[in-house]
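[09:14] KT: can someone run the structure on this one? pasting the chain below
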Amino acid sequence: MQHPSDENPEPCAERVARFYKGSTAYRDHLASKSLRQFDRFVAQVKRFVPPGARALEVGCGAGQAARLLAEAGYRVIGSDLSSLFLRAARAARVPAPLVAADATRLPFPDGSFDAVCALEWIEHLPDVASALGELRRVVRVGGFVILRSPALASPVWPMLDLPKLLLGRGGRPPHYGNLREAARFFVANLRRSARAALKRLPAFEPRLPTLSSEHIGGDGDASYWSSGVEVAHDLARHGFRILWRTDAGAPLSPAWLVDRLAPWLSPTMAVVAKKLR
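[09:31] RB: done, C-alpha coordinates below
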Protein backbone atom coordinates (compact mmCIF):
# COMPACT_ATOMS: atom_id res chain seq x y z
CA MET A 1 0.00 0.00 0.00
CA GLN A 2 1.31 3.44 -0.85
CA HIS A 3 1.98 5.67 2.11
CA PRO A 4 0.08 9.01 2.00
CA SER A 5 3.37 10.90 2.25
CA ASP A 6 5.13 8.93 -0.51
CA GLU A 7 3.68 11.10 -3.28
CA ASN A 8 5.20 14.29 -1.88
CA PRO A 9 8.86 14.84 -2.81
CA GLU A 10 9.22 17.76 -0.38
CA PRO A 11 11.82 17.10 2.37
CA CYS A 12 10.33 15.44 5.44
CA ALA A 13 11.33 18.23 7.85
CA GLU A 14 9.52 20.83 5.75
CA ARG A 15 6.35 18.71 5.47
CA VAL A 16 6.37 18.06 9.21
CA ALA A 17 6.83 21.75 10.03
CA ARG A 18 4.02 22.81 7.72
CA PHE A 19 1.69 20.18 9.17
CA TYR A 20 2.23 21.19 12.79
CA LYS A 21 2.03 24.89 11.96
CA GLY A 22 -1.27 24.49 10.14
CA SER A 23 -3.24 21.55 11.56
CA THR A 24 -6.13 22.79 13.68
CA ALA A 25 -7.15 19.15 14.21
CA TYR A 26 -3.78 18.40 15.81
CA ARG A 27 -4.01 21.57 17.88
CA ASP A 28 -7.43 20.48 19.15
CA HIS A 29 -6.06 17.00 19.89
CA LEU A 30 -3.30 18.51 22.06
CA ALA A 31 -5.61 21.01 23.76
CA SER A 32 -8.08 18.26 24.70
CA LYS A 33 -5.56 16.43 26.91
CA SER A 34 -6.33 16.60 30.61
CA LEU A 35 -3.79 17.84 33.14
CA ARG A 36 -3.69 14.35 34.69
CA GLN A 37 -2.01 13.02 31.53
CA PHE A 38 1.03 15.14 32.42
CA ASP A 39 1.35 14.07 36.07
CA ARG A 40 4.10 11.45 35.60
CA PHE A 41 6.19 13.77 33.47
CA VAL A 42 5.94 16.61 35.98
CA ALA A 43 6.71 14.18 38.82
CA GLN A 44 9.83 13.08 36.95
CA VAL A 45 11.00 16.70 36.68
CA LYS A 46 10.27 17.30 40.38
CA ARG A 47 12.28 14.25 41.35
CA PHE A 48 15.51 15.70 39.97
CA VAL A 49 15.07 19.47 39.66
CA PRO A 50 14.32 21.74 42.65
CA PRO A 51 11.51 24.32 42.46
CA GLY A 52 12.71 27.76 41.46
CA ALA A 53 14.98 26.34 38.76
CA ARG A 54 14.96 27.88 35.30
CA ALA A 55 13.45 25.29 32.96
CA LEU A 56 12.72 25.06 29.25
CA GLU A 57 9.96 22.77 28.03
CA VAL A 58 10.55 21.99 24.36
CA GLY A 59 7.56 20.99 22.26
CA CYS A 60 5.15 22.36 24.85
CA GLY A 61 2.12 22.13 22.54
CA ALA A 62 -1.01 23.56 24.18
CA GLY A 63 0.89 24.24 27.41
CA GLN A 64 -0.53 21.85 30.00
CA ALA A 65 2.84 20.66 31.32
CA ALA A 66 4.22 24.22 31.28
CA ARG A 67 1.24 25.25 33.39
CA LEU A 68 1.86 22.50 35.94
CA LEU A 69 5.59 23.26 36.11
CA ALA A 70 4.93 26.99 36.60
CA GLU A 71 2.40 26.25 39.32
CA ALA A 72 4.97 23.98 41.00
CA GLY A 73 7.34 26.95 41.30
CA TYR A 74 9.60 26.50 38.26
CA ARG A 75 10.65 29.49 36.16
CA VAL A 76 9.57 27.75 33.00
CA ILE A 77 9.59 28.85 29.37
CA GLY A 78 7.58 26.84 26.86
CA SER A 79 8.72 26.56 23.25
CA ASP A 80 7.13 24.94 20.25
CA LEU A 81 7.62 24.90 16.50
CA SER A 82 3.95 25.75 16.01
CA SER A 83 2.60 29.24 16.73
CA LEU A 84 -0.84 27.68 16.23
CA PHE A 85 -0.32 25.45 19.27
CA LEU A 86 1.09 28.33 21.30
CA ARG A 87 -1.98 30.45 20.57
CA ALA A 88 -4.06 27.69 22.15
CA ALA A 89 -1.78 27.78 25.20
CA ARG A 90 -2.12 31.57 25.47
CA ALA A 91 -5.89 31.32 25.08
CA ALA A 92 -5.86 28.90 28.02
CA ARG A 93 -3.82 31.48 30.00
CA VAL A 94 -0.81 29.28 30.63
CA PRO A 95 1.23 31.23 33.23
CA ALA A 96 4.60 31.01 31.44
CA PRO A 97 6.43 32.79 28.62
CA LEU A 98 5.88 30.97 25.31
CA VAL A 99 8.32 31.11 22.39
CA ALA A 100 7.86 29.86 18.83
CA ALA A 101 11.12 28.11 17.94
CA ASP A 102 12.55 25.28 15.86
CA ALA A 103 14.16 22.85 18.29
CA THR A 104 17.15 22.47 15.98
CA ARG A 105 17.83 26.24 16.31
CA LEU A 106 16.78 27.31 19.80
CA PRO A 107 16.99 31.11 20.36
CA PHE A 108 18.70 30.89 23.76
CA PRO A 109 22.35 31.38 24.80
CA ASP A 110 24.55 28.49 25.88
CA GLY A 111 23.87 27.26 29.42
CA SER A 112 20.65 29.24 29.82
CA PHE A 113 18.66 26.64 31.77
CA ASP A 114 18.93 24.45 34.85
CA ALA A 115 16.76 21.88 33.10
CA VAL A 116 15.51 21.21 29.59
CA CYS A 117 12.58 18.83 29.38
CA ALA A 118 10.18 17.44 26.80
CA LEU A 119 7.19 15.11 26.84
CA GLU A 120 6.16 12.98 23.83
CA TRP A 121 8.25 15.18 21.57
CA ILE A 122 11.41 13.47 20.35
CA GLU A 123 9.60 10.79 18.32
CA HIS A 124 8.14 13.57 16.13
CA LEU A 125 11.52 14.97 15.03
CA PRO A 126 12.93 14.48 11.53
CA ASP A 127 16.36 15.67 12.78
CA VAL A 128 16.91 14.11 16.20
CA ALA A 129 20.68 14.63 16.33
CA SER A 130 20.47 18.39 15.79
CA ALA A 131 17.69 18.82 18.33
CA LEU A 132 19.59 16.87 20.98
CA GLY A 133 22.62 19.02 20.24
CA GLU A 134 20.56 22.12 21.00
CA LEU A 135 19.23 20.66 24.25
CA ARG A 136 22.78 19.86 25.32
CA ARG A 137 23.89 23.38 24.41
CA VAL A 138 21.25 25.40 26.27
CA VAL A 139 21.42 23.44 29.56
CA ARG A 140 24.09 24.54 32.04
CA VAL A 141 26.81 22.30 33.46
CA GLY A 142 25.20 20.56 36.41
CA GLY A 143 21.77 20.86 34.80
CA PHE A 144 19.45 18.16 33.52
CA VAL A 145 17.93 16.95 30.27
CA ILE A 146 14.67 15.12 30.96
CA LEU A 147 12.81 13.35 28.15
CA ARG A 148 9.71 11.21 28.38
CA SER A 149 8.15 9.52 25.32
CA PRO A 150 6.93 6.19 24.04
CA ALA A 151 9.84 4.10 22.75
CA LEU A 152 8.42 3.39 19.31
CA ALA A 153 11.32 1.04 18.50
CA SER A 154 10.31 -1.33 21.31
CA PRO A 155 8.95 -4.76 20.30
CA VAL A 156 6.94 -4.94 23.53
CA TRP A 157 3.92 -3.04 22.20
CA PRO A 158 2.31 -6.08 20.49
CA MET A 159 2.81 -8.08 23.70
CA LEU A 160 0.94 -5.43 25.68
CA ASP A 161 -1.83 -5.48 23.06
CA LEU A 162 -1.96 -9.30 22.78
CA PRO A 163 -5.27 -9.80 24.67
CA LYS A 164 -6.99 -7.28 22.41
CA LEU A 165 -5.41 -8.79 19.30
CA LEU A 166 -6.48 -12.31 20.26
CA LEU A 167 -10.05 -11.10 20.70
CA GLY A 168 -9.99 -9.50 17.26
CA ARG A 169 -10.38 -5.98 18.59
CA GLY A 170 -7.62 -4.46 16.49
CA GLY A 171 -4.19 -3.39 17.57
CA ARG A 172 -2.32 -0.11 17.70
CA PRO A 173 -3.06 1.84 14.53
CA PRO A 174 -1.25 2.89 12.43
CA HIS A 175 1.49 0.45 13.43
CA TYR A 176 -0.58 -2.74 13.29
CA GLY A 177 -4.23 -3.74 13.29
CA ASN A 178 -4.20 -7.53 13.55
CA LEU A 179 -2.03 -10.43 14.70
CA ARG A 180 -0.18 -10.83 11.39
CA GLU A 181 0.77 -7.14 11.27
CA ALA A 182 1.65 -7.19 14.98
CA ALA A 183 4.01 -10.15 14.41
CA ARG A 184 5.83 -8.27 11.63
CA PHE A 185 6.04 -5.18 13.85
CA PHE A 186 7.46 -7.31 16.69
CA VAL A 187 10.23 -8.79 14.53
CA ALA A 188 11.14 -5.45 12.95
CA ASN A 189 11.29 -3.70 16.31
CA LEU A 190 13.25 -6.49 17.94
CA ARG A 191 15.92 -5.81 15.32
CA ARG A 192 15.67 -2.04 15.83
CA SER A 193 16.03 -2.35 19.60
CA ALA A 194 18.98 -4.72 19.30
CA ARG A 195 20.77 -2.34 16.91
CA ALA A 196 20.15 0.59 19.27
CA ALA A 197 21.49 -1.37 22.24
CA LEU A 198 24.60 -2.65 20.46
CA LYS A 199 25.57 0.51 18.58
CA ARG A 200 27.24 3.15 20.71
CA LEU A 201 26.97 5.62 17.84
CA PRO A 202 23.24 6.43 17.51
CA ALA A 203 21.62 6.07 14.10
CA PHE A 204 18.27 7.72 14.94
CA GLU A 205 16.39 5.64 12.38
CA PRO A 206 13.80 7.81 10.60
CA ARG A 207 10.17 6.85 10.18
CA LEU A 208 7.98 8.08 7.33
CA PRO A 209 5.17 10.05 9.04
CA THR A 210 1.53 10.09 8.04
CA LEU A 211 0.69 13.79 8.00
CA SER A 212 -3.07 14.02 7.74
CA SER A 213 -5.71 15.65 9.91
CA GLU A 214 -7.78 12.51 9.33
CA HIS A 215 -5.23 10.42 11.28
CA ILE A 216 -4.51 12.26 14.52
CA GLY A 217 -3.02 10.46 17.51
CA GLY A 218 -1.35 7.09 17.84
CA ASP A 219 2.01 8.52 16.69
CA GLY A 220 1.21 8.06 13.03
CA ASP A 221 2.87 11.44 12.56
CA ALA A 222 6.08 10.29 14.26
CA SER A 223 9.30 10.79 12.27
CA TYR A 224 11.71 8.76 14.45
CA TRP A 225 11.69 5.18 15.75
CA SER A 226 12.42 6.45 19.25
CA SER A 227 14.65 4.47 21.61
CA GLY A 228 15.56 5.42 25.17
CA VAL A 229 18.80 3.46 25.02
CA GLU A 230 19.84 5.25 21.83
CA VAL A 231 19.09 8.71 23.25
CA ALA A 232 20.95 7.81 26.45
CA HIS A 233 23.98 6.71 24.38
CA ASP A 234 24.01 10.07 22.59
CA LEU A 235 23.86 12.11 25.79
CA ALA A 236 26.51 9.97 27.48
CA ARG A 237 28.86 10.50 24.53
CA HIS A 238 28.57 14.26 25.02
CA GLY A 239 29.43 14.59 28.69
CA PHE A 240 26.21 13.62 30.46
CA ARG A 241 25.72 11.08 33.23
CA ILE A 242 22.60 9.00 32.70
CA LEU A 243 20.54 8.83 35.88
CA TRP A 244 17.40 7.19 34.50
CA ARG A 245 16.44 5.75 31.14
CA THR A 246 13.34 3.59 31.58
CA ASP A 247 10.05 3.72 33.44
CA ALA A 248 9.48 0.63 35.53
CA GLY A 249 5.75 1.09 36.05
CA ALA A 250 3.87 -0.93 38.66
CA PRO A 251 5.86 -3.75 40.35
CA LEU A 252 5.51 -7.10 38.56
CA SER A 253 3.67 -5.51 35.62
CA PRO A 254 4.89 -6.47 32.12
CA ALA A 255 6.64 -3.11 31.75
CA TRP A 256 8.31 -3.53 35.15
CA LEU A 257 9.60 -7.00 34.21
CA VAL A 258 10.97 -5.74 30.87
CA ASP A 259 12.73 -2.83 32.56
CA ARG A 260 14.35 -5.14 35.10
CA LEU A 261 15.40 -7.89 32.69
CA ALA A 262 16.05 -6.06 29.40
CA PRO A 263 15.80 -2.27 29.67
CA TRP A 264 16.76 -1.86 26.01
CA LEU A 265 13.33 -3.34 25.15
CA SER A 266 11.36 -0.92 27.35
CA PRO A 267 8.25 0.55 25.67
CA THR A 268 8.74 3.85 27.51
CA MET A 269 11.60 6.32 27.24
CA ALA A 270 12.11 8.19 30.50
CA VAL A 271 15.65 9.52 30.11
CA VAL A 272 17.16 11.77 32.80
CA ALA A 273 20.73 12.96 32.19
CA LYS A 274 22.97 15.36 34.12
CA LYS A 275 25.45 17.55 32.27
CA LEU A 276 28.94 17.06 33.65
CA ARG A 277 30.94 19.23 31.25
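[09:33] KT: thanks! The radius of gyration is 18 Å.
[09:34] RB: yep, looked fine to me
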